[in-house]
Amino acid sequence: MRAVKWILGLTVLLLAGAFLHYVLPRHAIVYITSTENRIVSADEVRGFRAFSDATASTAQGRRVEDVFFINTTRPNGRVLVFRNEDTRFGFPWYLKFNSADLQARAQDMVSSQGEPRWVAVRYYGWRIPYLSMFPNAVSLRPVAGPDVRIVPWFNILFFIFLTAVIWAVWSRLRRWRRRRLDPVRASWETESQRRQGLFRRWSGRG
User: Fold this and answer.
1) Record's InterPro entries (predicted)?
2) pTM for the full predicted model
3) Nearest alpha carbon to residue 31 among 150, 89, 117
C-alpha cells in the first residue's frame, strides 16, 4: 500500500512539474535568422492554443489559419523555431495581443551567423517535432551577447508564492486533523482495546 502511495505521489508530482514547465515563461538567447508566415491546419498540435474564430477553410473543407513563425539559432548552433500567436484571454494567461508587432520587431532583428544580433526571447511551451509543436514567443529584446544570464524573477516569485500557499494549506489540514481526526482515531483505538479485553475474558484468556 505504501508503494502505491509513493507511485501515485511521484506521478502527480511529475505531471504538475511538466505542467508548470510548459506554462511558465522561459528565456532563450538566440539570433534571428528569418521570419515567415505559414498556413497551419487544424490537425497540427499547437499546445494549449486552439483555433480562433478567424480560421478559414480551404476548397477541400480543411480548417486552416495563417500563423507567424520566428526562426532562430542558439549560441551552440542548434536551431529553435518559435510560433508567434496571440493568447488573448485564453490559457495560459499571457494576455498577448501584439503578435503582428512582435513579428515586425523580429523581422527588424534578423541577422546572420557572421554578424549575429543576439536577442533574448521570452516564451512558453515545448518544441516537439513529431507533434508539430512549437513554443510560443511572448516578447523579445536585444542583449549584449550570447553569455548574458537572465534571472527568472517571475518564476522565483511564483514558486515562493506557491510554496507559501502549500505550506498554509498543509498547516491548516494538520491542525484540522489534530482537532477532528486524532480524537476520533483515539476513541476507535480505545473501543477496540476494550472489545479485545472483553473477548479475552469471555474466552478465558484474560
Assistant:
1) Phage_phiNM3_A0EWY4
2) 0.78
3) 117
Measured distance CA(67)–CA(73) in Å, rounded:
20
Q: How far is CA 57 from CA 34, 41, 69, 110, 117, in A?
A: 27, 9, 21, 32, 38
- Cell readout for 15 is 505531471
Q: What does 140-192 look like in DSSP terms, one character per residue?
A: EEE-S-TT-----HHHHHHHHHHHHHHHHHHHHHHHHIIIIIHHHHHHHHHHH
Q: What is the number of other CB atoms lying within 10 angstroms of the CB of residue 25? A: 15
Report pLDDT digits (tens) over 13-53: 999 999 999 999 999 999 999 999 988 876 666 666 544 44
First to last CA, the chain: 34
What amino acid occupies position 125?
G
